[in-house]
Amino acid sequence: MAKRIDAANVTAYYGAFKAIENINITVEPKTVTALIGPSGCGKSTFLRSINRMHEVLPGARVEGSLTIDGQDIYHRDVDVTAVRRTIGMVFQRPNPFPTMSIFENVVAGLRLNGVKKKSILDEAAEKALRSANLWDEVKDRLGKPGAGLSGGQQQRLCIARTIAVEPQVVLMDEPCSALDPISTLAIEDLMFQLKDKFTIIIVTHNMQQAARVSDRTAFFSIEKTGDPGRLIEYDNTQKIFSNPSQKKTEDYITGRFG
Amino acid sequence: MTTTLTSHRPRPPAQPPTLRARRLPKWLPPAVALGALLVAAAIVYGAGIGGPVLVVVVGALLYLVGLFAAANAVEGRRSARNRTWSALIHSAFVLAVLPLASVVWTLVTKGLERFDVNFFLTSMNNIGARDPQGGAYHAIVGTLIQVGIAALITIPIGILCAIYVVEYGRGRFAFAIRFFVDVMTGIPSIVSGLFVLAFWVLVVSPYFSSTGRPGFSGFAAALALSVLMLPTVVRSTEEMLRLVPAPLREGAYALGVPKWKTILRVVLPTALPGIVTGVMLAIARAAGETAPVLLVAGGGAAINFNPFENNQSSLALFVYQQAGDASRYAPARAWTAALTLVALVLVLTVAAKLLARRNRLGR
C-alpha cells in the first residue's frame, strides 16, 4: 500500500521565478517525513510538485525527475488524475465541499470517480472515518453539512476524504496550522496510525511537531528573498534535532535564524 | 535590535477617563423634526411658494441643521456629525424606496380593476373599441414562450461561456470574449431587434416558413431576447465562479477528480445560488422588453401557440399597445397587464431561488 518516492534534481518555477532548485530526496515507504524551513523556502512548492498540484497554477512548471516506485510521475503518458489518486493531499485550511454532507464529503473521491454502489460507499465512508478518528463524533449526523463541523473535525474530515480513495502516499501541507492544540494532538496521533499503511510527507512550521511525528526530516532554506529554495540537510529526525551536520540547520533549529 | 522603549510609551490621555458623556434626551430628535416641519410649513405657505412636497424637503433640511446644532451643543462635534450622517443615510434609503413603493402601489391600485378571470382567459381577438371585455391570454402565452425559448438558448450557452472564461480560457482569446461580452451588455434592445429582423426574419425565415416568404414569429423575438440576456448571464456566472475558493478546486483535484468533473460537481453547485440570481435578472429584463418583440414578432390580437409561424404578442408589447389605444377600456387592460408582468417575474424569481437554495442539507 505504501510506496517509495525518489526526487532527483527537482526544480520548480512560477513563471520566470525559480522557487526551488535541485532537490534530491528519497522517501521510504511507511515513514513520516517532515519538511521544515523558513517561510518562502519552497517546502510547500516541493510538496505540491510530488502529486502534480504545482502545475494547477498558471505558468507553474517542474523540471527534474520524480518517481514513485520507479515510475516517473512527470512522464508524458502519465494520467494526472491517476497520480493524484495514488498521492493524496491534505491542505493547510480545511476545505470540505460546502454543498455536500459529511457522508458525501468522505466518499466524494470515490463517487466522483464513478463508484455508485451504496454498499461500497457506506463501507468506505465508515472505514475512512474510523481511520481518521472521526467516526464516533459524526456517525449520528452523516447527512449534515461538512462545513458545520469544528475546524479540527473538518480537517479530520478532509483526511478521511483523502484516505477514502486509498492512496499510497499522503501529503500534508501544514495540516495543523489552523487548529488548536487539542485538534493538533488528534491529528498527530492519527499520523502515527496512518504510518502503518501510508507513506506520509508533512510540511510544518512547528519544529516540535516535526520532532514528534516524523522519522526523517528535511530542512529547506533560502539564501535571501528571490533566491530559489534549496535542500540543506536531510537525515533521521533524531539526528537533525540533536546533532545536525550543517551549521544552518543548527541555527534554524535553535532559533538563531529564520 | 536595540529599540528605545520610551519613544513608544503611550501618552497619557488628554482628558480624564470618564466613559460617560452628556447625551441628547430621547424626545429631542423627534421634537426637532416636528419643529422643523412646522417652521418649513410656515415658510412655504407663508411665502406661497409651494405645497406639501416642498414642506417635507425644506423640513428635512431644517431637521438636519437643527439636529447638528442641538447635538453639537450638548454632545460635541463627533457625535453631532455621527447623528447628521445617520440621518442623511436614512433619508437616502427612504428616497430610494419611495419610487419603488410608489410603483407597486400604482400598479396594484390601477391593475386590480381588470384583474379578473376574463382577463386571463380571453385574448383581444374580435374585441372592438366599445367592448369592455378582452384580456391578455395571448400576451401571457407569448411572453412565456418567448422568454422560455430565450432562456433555453441563453442559459446553457451563457454558463458554458463563463466556465470557459474562468476555468479554461488563457490569453488573448478569453480576453477577447470578456471584452465582447462587455460590449454586448451595452447593446440597446432595439438594435438587437433590428439585428434579428435583418438576419433571421428577412434572410433565414423564408427557408423555414410554409409560404416561402419572410414572416414574423415568436422564435425571432426569442432570438432577439437571447442577444440581450446572454451578456448578463455570462457576466454574472463568471463573477460567481470566480468567487468559488481555489482550495475547493484543489481539494477535488487532489482526490484524483478530473477537471471537468470538479467543475460540474463541486464548482457549479457551490456557485449555483448566485448563478440563479444572475439568470433571473436576465429573464426579468427580457420579459420586460417591448421593442424587439414589436419589431420581429409583430404583436397580434389572437392566441398563437406556435412560436415558429405568425405574429405573437407579449405582455410588455400588450401594455404598450393598450396604453396607446383609443378605447376607453384599454388603459385598465394595460395596467392589469403590467401588474401581471411584475407578478410573473416575481413568482419566477421566488420559485428559482427556492429551488437553488444552498442548504438543502439543513443544519
List keywords for this structure.
heterodimer, A: alpha/beta, Rossmann fold, six-stranded mixed beta sheet, 10 strands, B: 363 residues, mainly alpha, MetI-like fold, 2 domains, flat, disordered N terminus
Question: Whole-Å distance between the termini of chain A?
Answer: 37 Å
- Proportion of helical residues of chain B: over 70%
Average pLDDT of chain A: 90
The spatial strand order of the largest sheet of chain A comes to: 6-7-8-3-9-10
Q: Can you tell me the residue ranges of chain A where pLDDT is under 50 for at least 5 consecutive residues?
A: none
CATH arch. level architecture of the largest domain in chain B: Orthogonal Bundle
Q: Stretches of chain B where pLDDT falls below 50 for ≥5 residues?
A: 1-5
Tell me the overall shape of chain A: globular
Question: What can you see in these coordinates?
Answer:
The complex is a heterodimer of chains A (258) and B (363). In chain A, strands 6-7-8-3-9-10 form a six-stranded mixed β-sheet, with helices on both faces. Chain A has a four-stranded antiparallel β-sheet with strand order 2-1-4-5, covered by helices on one side. Chain A has helices at 43-50, 80-86, 102-106, 108-111, 118-131, 135-138, 151-164, 181-194, 207-213, 237-242, 247-253, and strands spanning 5-14, 17-27, 32-36, 60-68, 71-72, 87-90, 169-173, 199-203, 216-221, 230-236. Chain A is α/β, with parallel strands linked by helices and 258 residues long. In chain A, a hairpin with an 8-residue loop joins strand 9 (216-221) and strand 10 (230-236). Chain A is globular, with a radius of gyration of 18 Å. Chain B folds into two domains: 24-110, no CATH class; 120-355, MetI-like (MetI-like fold, Orthogonal Bundle), CATH 1.10.3720.10. Helix content of chain B is 70%, strand content 0%. Chain B is built from 13 helices and no strands. Chain B has helices spanning 28-47, 52-74, 77-111, 117-121, 137-168, 171-185, 189-208, 218-243, 246-254, 259-287, 291-296, 315-323, 330-355. Mean pLDDT of chain B is 89; it is low at 1-5. The interface between A and B is medium-sized, with 32 and 26 residues.
